[in-house]
Amino acid sequence: MTPERNRELVKRAWRSFASGDKDLIATFFTEDAEWLAPPGNATAVALGGSHHMVGRDAIVHFLAVDFSRMFVADVAVAFRGLHADGDVVVVEETMEATLASGNAYSNDYCFIFTLRDGRIHRVREYMDTARAHRMVFGDS
């Protein structure tokens, strides 16, 4: 696929994540997909999950079920950049939401999507982990 088509695929995938529709979300990932975030990130710690999700089913469960347990309301994503080169698409964004605790959440992210055969095969997620920990767990 062309870089332009890959960029569009990631845009459509991102819209599917917001839908919470497990079947729709699953169509965007390879069966052996991986999602890697920084170890000890606040979301994984708060939900008792892993920073390294392996397999489409684990990723879909996180996006369709677990995500909304943490980020309960007012989820908004502002894209800062969407860049494609071959089978790699880089997304820069700011996400804001209300946490289950009632605290406000706002953090910048960078996602690197690697595509294979027209589906997402690997995601590397980067964010300000210290900032996220302060918003999720307080200053302690």
UniProtKB/TrEMBL annotation:
This is Nuclear transport factor 2 family protein. InterPro entries: NTF2-like_dom_sf, SnoaL-like. The lineage of its organism: Bacteria, Bacillati, Actinomycetota, Actinomycetes, Streptosporangiales. Gene3D superfamilies: 3.10.450.50. Pfam families: SnoaL_2. Residues 10-122 form the SnoaL-like domain. It comes from Nonomuraea zeae. Coiled coil: none annotated. Transmembrane segments: none annotated. It comes from the Bacteria.
